Amino acid sequence: MPEKKKKLDTMRALILVGGYGTRLRPLTLSRPKPLVEFANKPMLLHQIEALVEAGVTEVVLAVSYRAEQMEKELGEEAKKLGVNLIFSHESEPLGTAGPLALARDVLSSSNDPFFVLNSDIICDFPFKELVNFHRNHGREGTIVVTKVEEPSKYGVVVYGEGGRINSFIEKPQEFVSNKINAGMYILNPSVLNRIKLQPTSIEKEVFPGMAQDGELYAMELQGFWMDVGQPKDFLTGMCMYLASLRQKSPGKLYSGPGIVGNVLVDPTAKIGEGCRIGPNVTVGPGVILEDGCCVKKCTLLKGATVKEHAWLEGCIVGWRSVVGRWVRMEGTTVLGEDVIVKDELYINGGQVLPHKSIATSVPEPQIIM
Amino acid sequence: MLKAVILIGGPLKGTRFRPLSLDIPKPLFPVAGLPMIQHHIEACTRVPNLGEILIIGSYPTSDLHQFVQDMTQMYGLSIRYLQEFTALGTAGGMYHFRDQIRSGSPECFFIMNGDVCADFPLQDMAKFHISKHSLVTVMATEATRQQSLNYGCMVLKKGGEVDHYVEKPSTFVSTLINCGVYIASSDIFQTMADTFYANQQQEKLLQLNGNGKDPAYMSFEQDVLMRLAGSDRLFALPVTTWWSQLKSAGSAIYANRHYLALYRQSQPARLCAAVHGKCHIIGDVYIHPTATVHPTAVLGPNVSVGANAMVGPGVRIRESIVLAEAQIQAHSIILHSIVGRGSRVGEWARVEGTPCDPNPDKPFAKMENPPLFNTNGKLNPSITILGTCVSLTAEKILLNSVVLPHKNLTRSFKNEIIL
């Protein structure tokens, strides 16, 4: 009991980090997905920083594999941010609800509501508004919803005036709503009573019951939102993120000769003469862009090199990879860590595993083992 | 005195060379910086005692006029174009103009098909021809068993006499093939006359005049060589120097490479030096003196750049022909392609083809001329060709495609023919 009192003013969050991030391979073969840099910052750090901003001081990371590298790297960042990280290891995959039961002791150590996040989400995190919205309706849970253009691809959320959710409809054939679950929630500890410690889906097995009881509300997200769990969406999300950066803090974006549109450049990167960089490019630390290269809608990770006159569009270039002179790369090509693409080649939609040296063109999408 | 006849056919022939032959007669298409048949003319000028070159074909005189004038001036030799009133076949044209060929009483004369390219061994042929008292001597080369079926095949006796000759057999006969280059004595016109009258006679008898060919049509291969085989008056000289047909546009890149290699042997001054004042050169490269090439461009191996062409900063060109007045803009890359006259390739664009060279692991393999489409109806990958005045927008890719003249391409194309 005295311990509970001590933690009374602590806001908590649980992030569903989950498994190996296979959808973001070959990048996740070298680095756990939460550590893959999105706009020059590990994906998970975007979320942790936003949570800290909203007053969260304790974050549970629900992981289903041993994550020493993650603990080490994120631990340092967490210290700087003054947030307490707790790693919660699942010995078997517990779905999207099971990890909450596993972390029950931490999450129920006060009566304050806690946040739950899917780890692949990038948006203007609305955590402060979410807390206020949640306290105002006074029910057990609130989920953030976002508008999509083609709702029939997703499960949509149907709710009434004030946001009270009526139902969830999986892949509706006729239009009922254009709002989908954005993968961010705030829940009262009482919700934990609805979850058993076994593989459970929060979307399919917990939320419908809460909605039926009138205990679940929806809050509409303003601004951009993207699930960046796979390469194509990773790049689309990056475009959205950079556009939002242009609105909120344009000073963080780079400008200079040859820079077109929204471009983020680490100060330790080098850009040669006669390049055309942008729109929508992220250049990581130590990256070298040689003279006369053209890069559009790409993420270049730490230590990558793009040689002279190369042309890249819609690519992710892995850590320390080298793209040769006059190479053309497009079609959501993803180079893993330390890949070498020889001069003058054409790579279209190639997914190249780490430490490969590519000596012949890949004109059609292909995985290169 | 010797003479030479270059047979160039007419505008109805050489369709496989489209779209490059759509606005320039195929015999004038530049390979290694020179019109195709200028290589023939140059080979002739190296033969001492060669008095005149006659070009026979059915192209309008106006098409050849400037070229013939330039050649006459450049080589100080009598060069004339004789226009057939209609396509008369490889022998029919010569027979029609027999008086022109015989005037001045040459001992013998070379006959060269315009659509072959080679390191022409004309002097060796003349020596051999004279020593054998031959009527016609055929330049011959080795082919693979399979490829021999596309050519005229010969079987020789020990002394070089052609014992058997067959044109494009359906079953294997011999790997020794006819190169389309000959030396003949004037007496050949007697053989032609015999054939001519025999054909006329047959024509009258059978009233065959419905096959669409002129009654004076005569093929040198079918009507003359086949008739002479086994008579001990037809000889062949097998050679091992480079030789290729130049039928499809794709073979132009191959021919370009070989003619450049011949320059390296015989006239290295024509090639750009490795440390060229203009740009970075790799291997054999020909740049016309009036072309502008930026110092940061990298060219070669096996590249020809035509008159007044412009190659911008940071451009990369390999295994390609860039024709006159073409503009290749900054950072673009051209591989295994032909860029037509006055065409424009935008910044950071990529023009790339797939080479269809002879298999280097097969001795004697010749250039294949595969059909345009494969059995699935898909375009066979080949070199990329931009016709005259085609423009490719910046940053686009053109892969294994053929573009007809005057197209403005604003998106990327792969494996397409663009009409």
What can be said about this structure in brief?
Chain A has 369 residues and is α/β, with parallel strands linked by helices.
Total of helices of chain B: 9
What's the domain count of chain B?
2
Number of strand segments of chain B: 33
Oligomer: heterodimer
Which residues of chain A sit in consecutive blocks of at least 5 with pLDDT less than 50? 1-8
Question: Which percent band covers the strand fraction of chain A?
Answer: 25-35%
Describe the protein's architecture and organization:
The complex is a heterodimer of chains A (about 375) and B (about 425). Chain A has two domains: about 10-225, Spore Coat Polysaccharide Biosynthesis Protein SpsA, Chain A (Alpha-Beta Complex), CATH 3.90.550; about 240-365, 3 Solenoid (UDP N-Acetylglucosamine Acyltransferase, domain 1). Helix content of chain A is about 20%, strand content about 30%. Chain A has eight helices and 29 strands. Chain A is elongated. Chain B is α/β, with parallel strands linked by helices and about 425 residues long. Chain B folds into two domains: about 1-245, Alpha-Beta Complex (Spore Coat Polysaccharide Biosynthesis Protein SpsA, Chain A), CATH 3.90.550; about 270-419, Hexapeptide repeat proteins (UDP N-Acetylglucosamine Acyltransferase, domain 1). Chain B has nine helices and 33 strands. In chain B, the strands form seven sheets. A seven-stranded mixed beta sheet of chain B has the order 5-4-1-6-11-8-12, with helices on both faces. Chain B has a seven-stranded parallel beta sheet with strand order 14-17-20-23-26-29-32, with no helix packed on it. Chain B has a seven-stranded parallel beta sheet with strand order 15-18-21-24-27-30-33, covered by helices on one side. The model of chain B has no long low-confidence stretch (mean pLDDT about 90). The interface of A and B includes residues 308, 309, 326 and 363 of A.
